[in-house]
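Re: How this chain folds, sequence and tokenised backbone to follow
How to read it: Take the token row as a discrete description of the fold.
Start of record: The labelled sequence and token lines come straight after this line.
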Amino acid sequence: MTIYDISEKAGVSIATVSRVLNGSNNVSEKTKKRVLDVINQYEYTPNAFARGLGLNTMKTIGIMCADSSDLYLAKAIYYIEQKLRANGYDSILCCTGYELETKTASMNLLITKKVDGIILVGSNFIYEKDSDNKYIADAAAQVPVMLLNADLDIPNVYSVVSDDFTSMYEATLQMIQTGVKDIVYFYNSTSYSGKRKLAGYRTAMEEKKLLSGANLLQFYHGSHENIPAMTQHLVKLHEKGLKFHGVIAADDSLALAAVKYAREMGYRIPEDFSVLGYNNSLLSVCCEPELTSIDNKLETLCQHLITTLLGVLAGNEMPKKTIFSGEIIKRGTTR
């Protein structure tokens, strides 16, 4: 028996169950009686650590990320741990890799450590098949689960996301409006976020009737750290006869490779060749000219995620999903 089961049987939210267990006065007597009747009927007893209910809490949050060497994920972890610490919480970090089996094992490990909540950093934890997301649903039946830049409609799961679709859609239209028509979309992920970015690019290109073929969609399979290999991917496109004078990349590392490609081809940037990246990371100021990139407001996302988590742990009703808009930071690689 978990608080999820109690909320379902009593016909109230998990937050309401939490308030009853905390002895909050912000619950009607009728509702309180309904919850207590279910608790008594099933002889539910909160465990000694009361995972996330504020009763002798361990004040510890589990954090899962696929790869902490990724610049975006590493920065997110930094912001999250910093904001947890400022609110008196410790954290346990699990770097899971990308296999479902290891993600499930890490989730189970965090549950056994009796954490108060779990944060999934990045969108690679969400799968298209509902059965593959069972490991998240099972954890959410015991503690709040927070998703950073991913969305999943499961009880006790809360999402804070950047509007990747709109950001990429608007960025693509802006590049088209500057006169660049043959734009390659360069990407390396098919995660929830990755699909939203790709959809934004496709929608803009199709509206302008510029998506002439699949050749403009280029998926890079290699390491996210191997920028020379990314550059060679674009060189090979050129050698195969594909003509393009713009690259919109799903990540700043891919965009940096596009800048290197343009230099190898002898193109002037941005007069002959335009490049736009994503994440507005440190890499955006590590090339000449500096990189135009989409700032997806990562620190704001992390702050709101922690605020939501603390609210849930306090027994408050919190929004299940919050969306923030990105911003194009124009620098020297676009007209």
User: Anything to note?
Assistant: The longest strand covers residues 60-65. The chain has three domains: 3-41, 60-162+298-329, 164-295. Residues 47-56 have pLDDT under 50 and may be disordered. The two ends are 60 Å apart (CA to CA).
